[in-house]
Amino acid sequence: MRAVVSAVVLWAGAVLAASTPVPVSQQAPLAPAGGQAIFVAQCAFCHGRDATGGAGGPDLTDSALVSKDVNGDLIGAVVRGGRPEKGMPPFALSDADLKAVVAYIHDRKKAADDSPGRRRKVSAEDISTGNADAGKRYFEGAGGCTKCHSATKDLLGIASKYRGLALMQRMLYPTPQNAVAPGEGERPRPSPVKVTVTPASGQTITGTLAHQDEFTIALRDASGWYHSWPTANVKYTVEDPAKAHADQLPKYTDDDIHNLVAYLQTLK
Amino acid sequence: MTTFTTLSRISKRLSSVLAPFAIATCVLAQGLDPASLLRPSPDSWPTYHGDYSGRRHSALTQITPDNVKQLGLAWAFQTGRADQIKASPIVVDGVLYITTPDRIWAIDARSGRQIWQYAYPENKGFHIGHRGAAVYHDLVYLTTPDAHLVALNARDGKLKWNVEIADSKKGYWSTNAPLLVRNHLLVGVSGDFDNLPGLLTSFDPDTGAVQWKFYTTGEPGKTKPGDAMGGQMWMTGTYDPDLNLFYVGTGNPTPVLNGNARPGNNLYTVSIIALNPDTGKLAWAFQATPHDTHDWDAAEVPVLVDGTFRGAPAKMLMQASRNGYFFVLDRTNGKNLLSKPFGPVNWSKGLDDKGQPIPNPDKEPHRDGRLVAPNEGGLTNYRSPSVDPDAGLFIVSAADSYGIYFFKPEYGDYGWAGADYGVYGKAFLKAIDYQSGEIRWMHDLSGSSAGAGVLTTATGVLFTGDAAGNAIALRTKDGSTLWHASIGNVGTPPVTYMLDGRQYVVIGGGGGLFAFALP
Q: CA A262 to CA A253: how far, in whole Å?
């Protein structure tokens, strides 16, 4: 049953993440409303709207510091002082705002604790067990990564773009699902899959893959227009750069994976 | 093939001539006699798998490899709701029953017109999907998200009775299509996020009274700390009337990804079990994964096939299991005849002397993650396979896949107790030669994982759905494509039945049901 469950849970998560803050009037009486607004505005980018982790920031509902915190005695220092070594800046919140944010974090922690059977989170520290030197050797040797990638070109700064689990997932198999969502005003990244279609009569068209199944091939051309053809009527080639990642999956040992992650984490 | 077509055309004309007379004499012959399930009539699909064997292999011959490309839409039915249809249609007396969570529709199997619908009251149960209804005399049964069993009047959908199967407040729900065996209605439940005993209940189909309960991991109160829980029987089982044995697959143990909390094999989770349907007593069990830590239930359909196995007559039971192994068992005693992976499997160290895979501890979930094939969704899952005994093939919708699994003691020992993420999947329809376990052919299903079951027919045509929203028909012997129709996300196992001399194939796409037939 869980195959389907996971999809539902992920979907529900996506809906929550995408939703705008609930108006104060609609909230349950105990929810610290002001805290939520401040949290969403100032903390959610890194820690997620519901404090369960976001782009680079840890899950606060699963944090040892939060569990030991009493009325902000520990959280307060972190918020106001920041954690520069981990990339967290200091936040100059008023006493009232800080109190509200602390209440919101505890409220989210309680909500998470009240559903103890649910899936858990993975932190960046958990997966950092590899040896970066061994990872570099694998990258340049047995892994065959340098056939497509370069540590000084396309992968330069990859560790700043993706961290922890996201980096590991993307390294194993890059998909639209584990890509970083486009920022506000930013266009979605086009599919990296390149297609060349040659209709029986007519000239060859290239573009990025829009759809492919047994019966239909479709692409977006350079100006963004969608075109489709019955596969039976055309010749086409699909160049999927991610295929090498799929081909590598049966070849990895778990040590290879952790070493490679450790190496990629050095490419800041 | 021409002969079949000609014959069917003649019979079509004959039946249309005879139909008025037939109606006059059949007015009282309504409802489902349990004895008819032993030999279902060609105008019906009276139970989840169509018959007790689970083969989903139809004897109907009007649609052939030569004419299947002429299939067109006979009718379409829209539920008008957002839920994807994941249920098998049930067809009895020209009425087709289809379900989604909290809902059942009775529709005219000839025209797709709604006869009635029933909506269960709003509830807080888990609304994940629904597998289908069951019918007995003039009653239709629906299991519910809050783990109740309701019986409806088949004439008008009015509620007859409503009983609790299990306590939904503890975390149980039900998506199950019950199986009727004589006067036993066998009903399973689900429950994934809590440490709950696996439960199968036999109800009196007339009254809803409980006849017996089977607990996968032992009766509540008689277990000790460190015992596994779980092993839910959420899929519909199969039945051998000669042996009087009911076969069903059990789900994963809980806590799900924390195996340390439940040492040992965790019997009878992730097992194929044989029960006496009159008493609920266990006859035998075969464990597909001893001590599972990857959520791979063995709930997939245990398909019953008679024939020879490597030259000797055999009463076989076959399962393509979520853990990636294809098993053939002797269903008289549960002895293993064949265990072989049908796709990438990297978690096993081989087989024990019972033919059961031996898990590799290095591939258990770990703090820094372990790359495991298949992923949590498994090499296959709920989608029903089909067996064509003439071709000697077991045909299953598979997903070659990888996932990463995490566990650390901080995750605790309750419910999921871990984290896992899918990495990659590629969907194929696979035809397994069940004498050898070799893959005879594979058909690319255009995506990472397809949701449809499989139907084979006596003329060597099979129907299923791909991952891109196409219903497809293939030649059973080689997997070549014969026909397709884009109908949306296909989540049902296709069914077929013959009415008024016309063979219908019904497949769900999204929230719609589509019936195809020859012109």
A: 14
Low-confidence residues of chain B: pLDDT under 70 = 1-29
Pick among A1, A212, A214 to test the B interface (most B CBs inside 10 A): A1
**Can you spell out the DSSP letters for B155-222?**
TT--EEEEEESS-GGGT-B-----EEETTEEEEE-B--SS--B-EEEEE-TTT--EEEEEETT--TTS
Q: Tell me what the pLDDT averaged over chain A comes to.
A: 81
Size of interface A-B (CB pairs under 8 A): 130
The reported pLDDT for the residue numbered B467 is: 96
Same domain, A158 and A56: no
CB contact under 8 A, A214 and B446: yes
In chain B, the number of structural domains is: 1
Closest C-alpha to B50, from B463, B460, B398, B493: B493
Count of C-beta atoms within a 10 Å radius of residue A253:
11
Alpha carbon of B356 to those of B151, B316, B337, B452: distances in Å? 40, 17, 11, 28
Q: Residues of B with CB below 8 A from A172's CB? A: 371, 402, 404, 423-424
Mean pLDDT confidence for A153-179: 84
What are the beta bridge partners of residue A176? none
* Domain-embedded: residue A16: no
Please confirm, yes or no, whether B306 is among the known catalytic residues. no
Residue located via tokens 């990857």: B294
Q: What is the pLDDT of residues B140-175, one digit of tens each?
A: 999 999 999 999 999 999 999 999 999 999 999 999
What was the ipTM of the complex prediction? Answer: 0.90
Q: Does A168 lie in the same domain as A257? A: yes
Residues A37 and A104 in one domain: yes
Q: What is the spatial distance between Cα B139 and Cα B97, in angstroms, rounded to a whole number?
A: 12
Q: Is residue A42 part of a domain?
A: yes
- Residue A176 domain-assigned (yes or no): yes
Residue A10 lies in a domain: no
What is the DSSP code string of A211-250? Answer: EE-SSEEEEE-TTS-EEEEEGGGEEEEEE-TTHHHHHHTT
Residue range(s) defining the domain that contains residue A199: 194-239
Q: What letter would DSSP give residue B231?
A: -
pTM of the model: 0.85
